[in-house]
TrEMBL record:
Lineage of the organism: Bacteria, Bacillati, Actinomycetota, Actinomycetes, Micrococcales
Protein known as: non-specific serine/threonine protein kinase
Region ranges (Disordered): 287-346, 383-402
Family annotation (CDD domains): STKc_PknB_like
TM stretches of this protein: 355-375
Biased composition, class Basic and acidic residues, residue ranges: 303-316
Top enzyme class: transferase
GO molecular function: ATP binding; protein serine/threonine kinase activity
């Protein structure tokens, strides 16, 4: 083995160099051909320039981490690793042809179905790592490779590590700012399962839009500009008409500013994505994780013979079944093997009179509820919507008092006009009498603290000098006092 200059592919026994694949901060990646058996492999080689003991330690830990998780179908497989006498090291991995997901998202518009499928597959990989006690810490589009069969492979565990306790700290943790959560960016956490959930959601948002969530096209997207947006600005809408509201909400939930407000595990996020697949009538993507004994297993099944069987990976609500009073009394002749969950010697063969009365009472409540539902159904203002079961454009909330009609969160847009910026917005379920609360400021971070203006007509123009930045967001309000959530912040320059 000869010493290689920085950026030069080393000579590796049994491998023949073919071409460069890419370069990162501390390593280069090359395509080699393995001779026995013959197949392409990717080789990650540490750069000699700037090599420190910390970088070498991270590189060794990356090899060990990826080898530990190598059996997972959505984690890039490691074949071998070696440290060299001159202080360098290399890592031989399964080859995934370019482009990675970051490049693909720039070149093409990924479908909602593909993003959902990819999200579930990556969540499976992340959950498996978490169950092994490993936090990835750098989930982002560039770290997701795609096999020749279209399956994603999560890679670059270079800053991954074991989950740390609340009193532990790792000074060597680096981050990729555009996809990192506020608590990591501002040093309140070294990363945990919930921070990986945030980064995975930010990655899916990126795949839908072609850029990271808080990046402003044509604006200042340096790390110092992004960090305050990530900390203070609401998660923006994707702006795609084909992205369902349920997916917008799930991504916003998973990118909540506070870790406790997010899905607490990657598998929780995967199940939310599965529910949206079902809602959109897409093919179901299975969740693949490690089981309790450390073996890879499918966490759910796509082949259910009985459609009435409950799906363990989906939360659902079913209509109550109306049961006759006679059915409340078990009959040993009709069901001699019924399992009551109680020892047969101590369980009475019949239900007591009190239990029977309680059962009849439940039946009456169910029938009354059904009658009330039917009356309300027939009395709706829109018989077409009621008969098809289409979701309402706004939500209703009741608490024993009057029903409140909550407007949908609006989608804000705008354009530069002479002397300022004209903002417009749209939302589903417009009601007569709707008005709007608008707040605008000279920067995105200042918008939440800006004075709120009541606006009743569109567009709303904010005065600004030529080239001056104006940022605004809007909420929909109704006469009854209900108000939507504020929109994402929109920033433009005055004309």
């Amino acid at each position: 083995m000869t010493r290689a200059a920085p950026g030069t592919p080393p000579e590796i026994p049994g491998l023949v160099y073919r071409q460069p694949l890419g370069s990162g901060g501390y390593a280069d990646v090359f395509l080699y051909e393995q001779q026995q058996p013959r197949m392409p492999v990717a080789v990650k080689v540490l750069k000699r320039e700037g090599l420190t003991p910390s970088i070498l330690r991270q590189f060794v830990e990356e090899a060990n981490t990826m080898a530990q998780l190598a059996d997972h179908p959505y984690i890039v497989q490691v074949f071998r690793s070696e440290q060299l006498a001159d202080g360098g090291a290399y890592l031989v991995m399964k080859y995934y042809p370019p482009p990675n997901l970051a490049t693909r998202a720039k070149r093409e518009r990924l479908s909602v179905e593909e993003v959902l499928r990819t999200g579930i597959q990556l969540a499976s990989a992340v959950e498996t790592a978490h169950r092994a006690g490993i936090i990835h810490r750098d989930v982002k589009p560039a770290n997701v490779l795609i096999s020749q069969y279209g399956a994603p492979g999560l890679t670059d565990f270079g800053i991954a590590g074991r989950a740390l306790g609340p009193e532990e700290h790792d000074e060597d943790v680096g981050v990729s700012v555009p996809w990192s959560p506020p608590e990591v960016l501002y040093g309140q956490s070294n990363g945990d399962a919930r921070s990986d959930v945030y980064s995975l959601a930010a990655t899916l948002w990126h795949l839908l839009v072609g850029r990271s969530p808080f990046e402003q096209p044509g604006g200042d997207n340096s790390a110092y500009a992004l960090m305050p947006r990530i900390r203070a600005t609401p998660v923006p809408q994707t702006g795609r008409a084909d992205v369902p509201v349920s997916l917008e909400r799930l991504l916003g939930h998973a990118m909540a500013k506070k870790p406790d407000a997010r899905p607490q595990t990657a598998i929780d996020l995967a199940r939310g994505l599965q529910a949206i697949e079902q809602e959109q009538r897409f093919a179901r993507t299975p969740i693949v994780v490690l089981d309790e004994s450390g073996h890879t297993t499918v966490a759910d099944s796509t082949s259910r013979a009985d459609p009435e069987e409950p799906d363990p990976d989906r939360t659902s609500v079913r209509a109550p079944r109306v049961t006759s009073p006679q059915a409340l009394t078990p009959s040993p002749a009709a069901n001699p093997t019924a399992d009551t969950g109680v020892d047969d010697e101590t369980q009475p063969a019949t239900i007591s009179g009190g239990a029977l009365l309680a059962g009849v009472g439940v039946l009456v409540l169910i029938l009354v509820g059904a009658l009330v539902w039917a009356v309300g159904f027939r009395g709706g203002d829109d018989p077409t919507e009621a008969s098809t079961g289409a979701p309402s454009a706004s939500a209703t909330v009741g608490g024993g008092g009057p029903v409140v009609d909550l407007p949908e969160q609006p989608l804000i847009d705008g354009r530069t006009v002479p002397g300022g910026v004209a903002f417009t917005w749209q939302y589903a379920g417009v009601r007569k009498g709707d008005y709007y609360r608008v707040r605008a400021a000279a920067s995105e971070a200042a918008v939440p603290e800006a004075q709120v203006l009541t606006v009743r007509a569109l567009p709303h123009t904010v005065k600004a000098a030529n080239g001056q930045v104006v940022c605004a967001q809007v909420a929909v309000a109704r006469a009854a006092g209900a108000s939507s959530a504020y929109s994402a912040v929109k920033c433009l320059t005055g004309g």
